[in-house]
Design goal:
Blueprint: E1 7-10, E2 14-22, E3 29-33, E4 39-43, E5 50-51
Antiparallel strand pairs: 1-2, 1-5, 2-3, 3-4
Length: 52
């Protein structure tokens, strides 16, 4: 499970840092700061990220 401060990579947005995680299991949503692309809220079930 992701936690704030984790570094992640996304196929479209690239490298980012997790700011917050809300919800559990299939309803988990992560707010990730991708730098120049900005902060994205990702429903992890549909938009998986790889933890580094």
């Amino acid at each position: 499970m992701l936690e704030p401060g984790d570094r992640v990579v996304h196929d479209t947005f690239g490298m980012g840092a997790v700011i917050a995680v809300e919800g559990l299991a299939d309803k988990a949503v992560a707010s990730v700061d991708f730098g120049s692309t900005g902060v994205k809220r990702l429903l992890l079930r549909y938009s998986p990220v790889e933890k580094l």
